[in-house]
Amino acid sequence: MRYDLIIFDNDGVLVDSEPISNTILAAYLTELGFPTSYEDSIRDYMGSAMHRIHDLIQERTGRVLPADFDDAFHARVFAAFERELQPVAGAADVLAKLVADGVPYCVASSGSHERIRVGHRTTGLDEWFEEEWVFSSQDVGRGKPAPDLFLYAAERMGVAPERCAVVEDSPLGVQAARAAGMDVYGFTAMTPEERLQGATALFSDMAQLRELLG
Prior knowledge:
By secondary structure, the chain is an alpha/beta fold. Helix content is 46%, strand content 12%. The chain is built from 9 helices and 6 strands. Helix 6 links the parallel strand 2 and strand 3.
């Protein structure tokens, strides 16, 4: 099937940010008195909007995170991005092929607009994205697994949901894409295949994705 729009998740799909951000998140939560391992962070928070972190901590402990938690966490993450962040291998090649084939694309991320832009600027992927092709959970209020973000991106790009394909690497993202009525391709570089059940197809490197998208 030739799609009319490819919607990319950002963290872990375009930029290799998940190891960095989840290492920092686990350490910061532990520092605040909420013991969290790197594996815990990947399992519970990968692919989620910031509000999910607050919600799960309160649900599990009855306590709330500090008012400045988001700002402090992002400051640490952005500093690490500037030092360490790399694009996902082959991501730019996929974007180049979509451009060559005339297939529209965009990014729809649980991360903030600032986080997306910092990551793209640091890795050089900013040259591939116009401002109006970048969507964040900030735009809709509810993050994945709600379908709102993907539906919003499709609407803004002028494409019906059933003509869209989503590229995701988290269970929450796969759930959101399916709820939006979209095909979804699950990237297994960091996530075991069994956690991406429901995906239209799975792939482990970007060369495979180029083939899957035709």
